Amino acid sequence: MNPPEPSIGCVTSDGVATVTLHHPAKRNAMTAPMWRRLTELLGGLAEAPSVRALVLTGSGETFCAGADISTLHGDPDAEDGPQRLAVAAEEALAAFPRPTLAAVRGHCVGGGCQLAAACDLRFATADAVFGVTPARLGVVYPATSTGRLVRLVGPSAAKHLLFSAELIDAERALRVGLVDEVLESGTLLDARVAEFTRTLGTRSLLSQCAAKEYVDGPPDPTRSAHWVRQARNSGEAAEGAAAFLERRPPRFTWEG
Q: What whole-number distance in Å separates Cα of residue 239 and Cα of residue 252?
């Protein structure tokens, strides 16, 4: 029996879209069609008001071992070259307008680490390993990806990862800021991700989207004015105050 074709699946439940990388024969390494599919899928999900948060993960016991080198040919800087496909998917993930979380098991290396870094938060199992590996292949890591890595872990840790292409364990990834939480097992990871996304669903999406934009981008008076108008017209603050005074959960309704 032939192994299943590489694919990317998506299941949406209770406002959370779970996107799963599936290429078990290659530790979920990304092929060119997978990069393209991920970019397209993220674009569609970004337009879906029912999606309040997104979880990116890998099938089985690994997140993503990077790009499937055997399937990526040609000029890496060409319009349809492997690096541009990867950056397009990374940028679509970074630009996703609502909270995103990478749930990491096993290997999170190369393009996998590139995708995880583009998420807002990263939760991982204790046996996860991380690496940024262009120096093993003689590849120049994209400038935008390098900048994102520096903002996440700082210049020194970014240089260590980029210069050495060494793999680091989850404990060290947590220490340098590449990971936000470490769980002892996959079962605990799943439970924590479910708990955290449920918590996000009880909070104001307006507050989350504005905060994400402010954290990720430089100050923009036009966008600040936009969010002030949204807050004023949405009634979210009034609902939050009323819920607090009435000692009940708030019922936030803003969808963007």
A: 7
